[in-house]
Write a structure and sequence with these properties.
There is one protein chain. The chain is an alpha+beta fold. It has four domains: 153 residues, no CATH class; 196 residues, Roll (Pnp Oxidase, Chain A); 106 residues, 3-Layer(aba) Sandwich (UbiD C-terminal domain-like), CATH 3.40.1670.10; 32 residues, no CATH class. The protein is globular. α6 crosses α10 and α8 crosses α9. The protein is built from 14 helices and 23 strands.
Amino acid sequence: MDEHHTPPASLSLSRRRLMGTGLGVASLVLAAPTISASAKIRSRKPILAPYDSLRDYIAALEQRGLVLRIPRIDQDAFEAAALMYRLRQLHGMRGAPALVFEEVRIDGRWVKGPLVVNESGHLHAECLVFGLEPVHEGHYVRESWASYRRARAHVGKMLAANGGRYPALPPQEVAGAEAPCKEVVLTGDDIDLTRFAFIKGNPADAGRYINTGMLFTRHPDYGQNIGTYRCHLRGPREIGVNSEPGQTGNRHLTAARDRGEKVARVSIVLSPDPYVWILSSNKLADRSDGPVDELAIAGGLAGRPVRVVRSETNDFLVPANAEMIIEGEIPLDDMRPEGPYGEMVGYQGLRKERQFWMRVTAVTHRRDPWIMNNFTGVQAGSLMAAGHARPFMELTQEIPAVADFYSDNRAVGVTAVSIRKTRPGQGLEIARLIAERNFAAKVVIVVDEDVDVTSQEQVLAALGARWQPARASHLYESLPGLPLDPSAPQRGRTSKIAIDATRQWPEEGGPARFPGLNETLLREGAPEAFTRVDEKWGDLIRNWRTA
């Protein structure tokens, strides 16, 4: 579970080995303690939020040294996938840079990109997208969780100022001539999606995938939905559309079929600005009072309206600054196989015998479109602070004792909660409440306030030193769970465990006196010790591997 380990010698990246991979000089930046951008990029006028396109967002990350550009990568040999695994091993899921591959080898030919990977991976981006200065926590920290918390608190203030809801600004429609996503319009036999930099991410996957596409669907009563679902690229004008049962897009398509409709017209948006990407990848819309314009929420997060343009073959208004729009029709009475595919839990998913698919009717795109790819289960998904802000706010309102909360996508199904404990039995009570309500929380661990819930090392240490399994646990035989859990004997159902890993009080069967942490006692007894060590030997201990 802990990612803060040192990779074995066989996994280390040396300058000589990088030179031998063919990844290019840009890769040498990995050998340095930090990743730096070029002087040319750094000298430009700062690119500030809000960002109107993926290109602006990546340029802003590059100014901060958070982008690694590689001229050519051979994905026929799965170099891009292996590089992403290496970056995670070295820098953690939330400490690695974005990757921009200028050309990618696919099916024996070099395909022009750029292909963008891990665009939301570094925690500093959580701040930058909202115009906040990231929190720099020192030389020894790979993943700046303080940046994530600063961004989450910022969105929390937005929610508090708007009655507990995300702010919304209605989209602004523009003509096709003003929309970058309409620079090239393809219809009929001119459409060939295989020409673009969509890749096969793993040798065991069913094929090449469009896996960051945002599907626009509509229900007559509940309005429009935007959801991110993977799409299997089967040919120039055919893609499988995988929306899981229970997801809104799947419900819309199933309801249309149940109404007797034969075809659903849809649009898929690729590589929009980061606010639309956040919106599509998180459940932000509150539909308790009826239909919601999700693009208005994206505009509210950005602080300016999303510019939208009408699709060519349907009436969906889509983000005008996106890199590509794929339009088409889904035959509702013709289901086809899809998968297998590497899932978010880090394991290969099952082949699905009956899944929706799409016949492509139009493709519009910017010249030389930028394609986003997600190595699902390896890299981070979208930026997460905005999506976490409202559930965290609601949880603390209901349970004031909650200090912090994190559903860990590095270990999908594990949720850690820290509390300000005030009475016996409180930890297990809160753990059970979350396990019963949150279908994705398979293992719920409640810890004391002094434990950082984003640190797998600290949470595991609390389990080892503060938890008594016989007295401070509750097992559930079967509850609703994540459909993608490879261990579930019944899809969508799982057993769960609620764990109280707080210091157990005497009333809970704990010791009469729970001892203090050694590090805490050191900091209290010798408050200047760490500062003195950093000043005297900081460079030595930071760079000891690089000689």
